[in-house]
Amino acid sequence: MGRLSKKIAVVTGAARGLGRGIAEKLCQEGAHVIIVDLNEEECQKVVAEFTEQDYQASAFPANIADHDEVSQLFTGLIQEFGTIDILVNNAGINRDVTLHKMSIEQWRQVIDVNLTGTFHCTQEAIKIMREKQYGRVISISSASWLGNFGQANYAASKAGVVGLTKTAARENATKGITCNAICPGFIDTDMTRGVPDKVWDQMVAKIPMGRAGSPSDVGNVVAFLASDEASYVTGEVINVGGGMVL
Predict the structure, then answer these.
(1) Which domains does the chain have, with CATH numbers?
(2) Is 55 considered catalytic here?
(3) pLDDT digits over 104-149, tens only?
(4) Alpha-carbon distance 179 to 241, whole Å?
(5) How many other C-beta atoms lie within 10 A of the C-beta of residue 162?
(6) Hey, which residues does 22 pair with through a beta bridge?
(7) Given this model, what pLDDT does residue 106 score?
(8) Catalytic, out of 55, 134, 154, 232
(9) For 237-244, what is the mean pLDDT?
(10) pTM
(11) CA dihedral 5, 170, 158, 89 (to 10 degrees)
């Protein structure tokens, strides 16, 4: 029996990369994990792989930037599972370009998914959690929330996630709901593997521990925050970056 046995956990952006790693860790802890992502085929693929390992998982594709889709998503989840215990806001995109060259579309795309999408999911989940007087909301921000070259849109969205998290924590603390943010540093995922070798080496050189993180490094912290062991932890911003932010 894992720490999250019989819990229903929703993980957005869970079809690959960091989200998939987080979803796998929650499955290992005994949760029934809802795989949410844009691509239905990829969602089903992850569920099939998890099922082969005797994990409990279900696929619910959705565009979290669309309010109506998110509303329908949570309505469907309640109809099928009756409740939601854990929400992990992981879905995110980047459209990196320096501020003076950034188009309004590049700005809006990132804000719509990373920040507004997190708001949509958090709002729907909290409505359910307030009724049951229990819940865990964990939002993936980024070390870039402090500002990063070429990432005005991304940094703004991730700083917004921190503000949203702290506000949600204050508003819902008396309802048995904890809300925390995790700021991963440089994590080895499909996205980061796309950078040139020179950039990879430069990024790793900034990390005191001397290596890129893995999705499991982040997943371990998510699992703790989702558990009853973290029942007195709320409104926190936890860096998981090997000392990248000190």
Answers:
(1) 8-240 (3.40.50.720)
(2) no
(3) 999 999 999 999 999 999 999 999 999 999 999 999 999 889 888 8
(4) 20
(5) 18
(6) none
(7) 97
(8) 154
(9) 94
(10) 0.95
(11) 20
